[in-house]
Design brief:
Layout lengths: L1 H21 L1 E7 L6 H9 L17 E7 L2 E7 L14 H10 L5 E7 L7 H14 L7 E6 L9 H17 L5 H5 L4 E3 L14 H11 L2 H15 L11 E4 L2 E4 L11 H15 L10 H12 L1 H13 L2
Parallel strand pairs: 1-3, 1-4, 4-5, 5-6
Antiparallel strand pairs: 2-3, 7-8
Helix pairs in contact: 1-8, 1-10, 3-4, 7-9, 8-11, 10-11
The chain binds guanosine-5'-triphosphate and magnesium ion.
The site of guanosine-5'-triphosphate has 20 residues, from helix 2.
């Protein structure tokens, strides 16, 4: 009985895979130069997809980096200068049209700002307004607010800083014509620090970053993103060869260790399951209790990225 149910879910999932491989994932990154947009994207994906540098933005533009991970095409769109006080160019109609013509789809949007600042800067507010005008208020449905340099805030002040900064940025977003607090208050925030594995509360931040980005991803982007990330999320010994290594922002981890590159705590597992149920396999959340057991052997037999995804689902529903 449970095997039949598992089979049904699996078929529903596998039927969506060929379509997922044809799709492209588009990440739009908003934030001042040097705030850690590229480093954070690279840390999440476990690969140096976007260039990390220390240069100053001099002109305003829209730049995209194309890459491919496990057969899934990725575009990371950067908006240099949009949040910076670039004097010679204004955030005008011309730039708005440039954005519209270059960005035809957004699966995940990141608003990135350092945690150790106290107020929302004027250039950030202007960028928020421009984004809203360019893509409409629905663009915020796929947004995540990311606070970088989390460890530059004192541990005792960290929870308050995170709360306060989140409120201020949500308010700035809500103030845009048409957006409002209902949409803005739904936007999750995550604190990260690519110079460390943990945030000041001692928690590893990669799991939270994945959970929030996944919870906001477009429906079209959900399966491609899940396929790309699955291998990093499930305990490595479940489907990897002993000889395999995988990269982390802090060097290489040897497979066979108990821990995946991105660890999820119980709360995050719950949220990820909710997202899988909402965007990938409807009905799975209320399936029989031992549904995970029925998935396990199938995932191992399928192998590859899809096998890893099925294995991850099995592990989550274990
Ligand atoms: N300690 C620490 N360093 C960081 C963090 N985020 C970024 N950096 C460093 O800051 C510098 C700039 O980071 P990038 O990731 O290139 O920033 P960016 O926002 O992509 O910058 P542009 O592409 O120039 O707009 C690099 O040297 C990073 O290593 C962080 O959270 N903590
Ligand atoms: Mg960058």
């Amino acid at each position: 009985m449970i095997e039949q149910q598992a089979q049904k879910f699996l078929e529903a999932f596998q039927a969506k895979i060929p379509g997922a491989h044809k799709k492209k994932l588009v990440f739009l990154l908003i934030g001042r130069t040097g705030v850690g947009k590229s480093s954070t994207v690279n840390a999440l994906l476990g690969k140096p997809i976007a260039e990390v540098g220390d240069y100053e933005a001099t002109t305003m533009g829209v730049e995209s980096y194309e890459s491919e991970l496990d057969g899934i095409k990725f575009t990371v769109i950067d908006t240099p200068g949009l949040c910076d006080d670039v004097e010679e160019v204004e955030r005008d109609q011309h730039y708005l049209e440039l954005m519209r013509s270059k960005v035809t789809q957004i699966d995940s949007m990141w608003f990135v700002s350092p945690l150790n600042e106290t107020r929302v800067r004027r250039d950030e507010i202007e960028a928020i307004e421009l984004i809203s005008r360019a893509f409409g208020k629905q663009v915020w449905e796929h947004a995540v607010i990311i606070f970088t340099f989390a460890n530059s805030v004192n541990a005792s002040k960290y929870p308050e800083a995170l709360k306060k900064r989140t409120e201020l940025i949500r308010k700035a977003i809500a103030n845009c014509e048409d957006v409002g607090l209902v949409v803005a208050n739904d936007i999750p925030s995550v604190a990260v620090d690519t110079g460390s594995e943990t945030t000041p509360d001692g928690e590893k931040w990669l799991g939270e970053l994945f959970t929030k980005v996944f919870s906001r991803i477009s429906e079209r982007g959900a399966i491609p993103f899940f396929l790309v990330m699955a291998d990093s999320l499930k305990p490595p010994h479940q489907n990897k060869k002993e000889s395999d290594q995988y990269s982390t922002p802090f060097g290489y981890a040897q497979v066979g260790s108990e821990k995946p590159r991105i660890e999820l705590n119980e709360q995050q597992k719950k949220e990820v399951k909710k997202t899988i149920d909402a965007l990938i396999i409807p009905g799975l959340a209320t399936a029989g209790a031992s549904i995970g057991l029925a998935f396990g052997p199938v995932g191992a037999a399928v192998g590859g990225g899809i096998g890893a995804a099925i294995g991850l689902i099995a592990w989550l529903w274990d």
